[in-house]
Design goal:
Strands 3-5-6-7 form a four-stranded parallel beta sheet. Strands 2-1-4 form a three-stranded mixed beta sheet, with no helix packed on it. The chain has a three-stranded antiparallel beta sheet with strand order 8-9-10, covered by helices on one side. β6, α21 (399-406) and β7 (412-414) form a beta-alpha-beta unit. It contains 22 helices and twelve strands. It has three domains: 1-75, no CATH class; 82-183 and 418-481, no CATH class; 203-222 and 240-410, no CATH class. The protein is globular, with a radius of gyration of 24 Å. It has 495 residues and is α/β, with parallel strands linked by helices.
């Protein structure tokens, strides 16, 4: 029994941690966690650890249970709830967000040194008192936080992660993230998923046992650069590998994704990581979604699939990477290659084992001569409902070609969540429109007149290419994000 209880920590994060990661209340997740705990004890930790068939059945049961009792229930109606409770009160809620931010951070050094009060008589008074700024205003404070471990500079809360910007517009930026950022983010994700599914035919809603394929990245915790106090630094997309910001997220990525996340973290070559994820995705016959955040990355993955389709089919047929020239050449760790092969073969057990692998490999091989024809992705995954990537702005040039790979029956939707390392700011109200609406509790949005947008961009030293068109003409006050991170000016077109 002691061994079984010990094994629980591997499969079941704390109730609070799982609730945060799923975007649910503690009460909602209690039943699911309790049932999972009982199941682990009944099966026995050793059986789960050593018996592939038991482990596969357990993971499938865990996935369907969490989907049905937690994720689907938290998602269904989330958009309608937002529509009724938040949309009519956008200004009120956004003003309240500013008050919360000021009360939280009003005692920190930045607020004190810039004479920012914890309470203002009105929003207009705040606007008059606190000028717009850019990252350079905050860089000295963040440098002190990172290099000298100083606290209470931008926020009194403990920073759990420093998210890095891409650095495409200049010197790399570090965005401090605090733990209270997560609940609002997960709530917004539930609203986003609800908005997507309500835009699709009801009969296409994914069954609980189905998987989606999201291209993810990660690395082992010891590989992250660290601030002087040990706080990890890296892209927000890899925070789940190391940060307490996302408790239980690695488990969820393994359960709902196509492969064990811990194995993916051990692959230090991006090309190999994408290839391996494709092999696992191809082993799954009923994917309902493909999600790759940026269109250029999506296109690269499709080209990788086309170029290596025969080798990928062989991996699926054998349930092994033993004959993969790419994996053998780039993954020197023999034990890692063995574990990857075992996990791939184990995945096939969910769908029928050896006989299934042979049939699935033959299906993939049948596409070799048609790999350049339209609808390749839909032929490989006939139950695909939609694909998602960022295809707005300069990425719009990829739209038509990506849509051709999907075919006419699988919609390619623009990323429904408007997100960045600085925060999550809004979401698409429907897959049928390019319009976004604000998330009023994500950040304080300071609206400015359209005639002053150019003047503000000049004041903040922003180029035209740094303005993004979405929904309304607005500049974000850089001192007002909930986690103390900083936002560049964004131009939004009127609805």
């Amino acid at each position: 029994m002691g061994a079984a209880i010990s094994k629980l920590s591997e499969y079941v994060p704390s109730r609070e941690g799982l609730a945060l990661s799923l975007g649910c209340s503690n009460t909602t997740v209690t039943v699911a966690v309790s049932v999972v705990a009982v199941c682990v004890v009944v099966y026995g930790a050793r059986a789960i650890a050593n018996n592939s068939t038991v482990r596969v059945k357990f993971h499938r049961w865990l996935r369907t249970t969490l989907r049905h009792w937690v994720l689907d229930r938290s998602m269904m109606g989330a958009f309608d709830k937002f529509y009724v409770q938040q949309l009519p009160r956008m200004q009120e809620l956004n003003d309240a967000t500013l008050r919360d931010i000021l009360q939280l951070n009003g005692s920190c050094a930045f607020a004190t040194e810039h004479a920012i009060k914890s309470v203002y008589a009105s929003i207009d008074e705040f606007r008059r008192s606190v000028p717009l700024s850019n990252y350079e205003t905050y860089r000295p404070y963040i440098d002190r936080m990172v290099q000298q471990s100083e606290t209470n500079l931008l926020t009194p809360d403990r920073v759990v992660y420093y998210a890095t910007s891409s650095g495409t517009t200049g010197k790399r930026k570090l965005l401090p993230i605090i733990k209270r950022f997560l609940p609002g983010m997960m709530e917004l994700i539930s609203v986003v998923q609800s908005a997507v599914w309500r835009s699709l035919p009801a009969d296409t809603f994914a069954r609980p046992e189905q998987r989606g394929f999201a291209l993810v990245s990660g690395k082992k915790p010891h590989l992250f650069p660290r601030a002087n106090d040990g706080t990890p630094i890296g892209p927000l997309s890899q925070a789940h590998s190391v940060s307490p910001l996302m408790p239980g997220m690695s488990l969820l990525l393994s359960v709902f994704g196509v492969m064990p996340f811990g194995l993916l973290e051990a692959i230090d070559n991006h090309e190999v990581a994408a290839f391996v994820q494709l092999a696992f995705a191809l082993m799954v016959p009923d994917l309902f979604r493909i999600e790759i955040y940026f269109a250029p990355s999506f296109m690269h993955v499709v080209k990788l699939l086309q170029a290596n389709l025969e080798e990928l089919a062989l991996c699926v047929t054998l349930g092994s990477f033993q004959r993969s020239s790419l994996v053998n050449a780039q993954v020197a760790d023999v034990e890692l290659r063995r574990q990857l092969s075992r996990a791939l073969a184990e995945l096939s057990l969910e769908y029928g084992g050896i006989e299934y692998r042979i049939a699935r490999g033959a299906h993939i091989n049948a596409q070799l001569d048609r790999r350049n024809e339209p609808a390749l992705l839909h032929r490989l995954w006939p139950q695909l409902v939609y694909a998602s990537t960022t295809i707005g702005g300069s990425f719009a040039v990829y739209r038509d070609e990506l849509q051709s790979y999907l075919g006419p029956d699988v919609p390619l939707i623009n990323s429904p969540l408007y997100a960045a390392s600085e925060g999550f700011f809004g979401f698409s109200i429907s897959i049928k429109t390019a319009e976004y609406i604000f998330a009023p509790k994500a950040a304080f949005f300071e609206f400015i007149d359209e005639e002053f947008v150019t003047e503000v961009c000049i004041h903040l030293s922003l180029t035209q290419s740094q303005s993004h068109s979405i929904s309304l003409n607005v500049a974000l006050n850089l001192g007002s994000t909930a986690d103390g991170s900083l936002v560049g000016t964004t131009t939004w077109q009127a609805l």
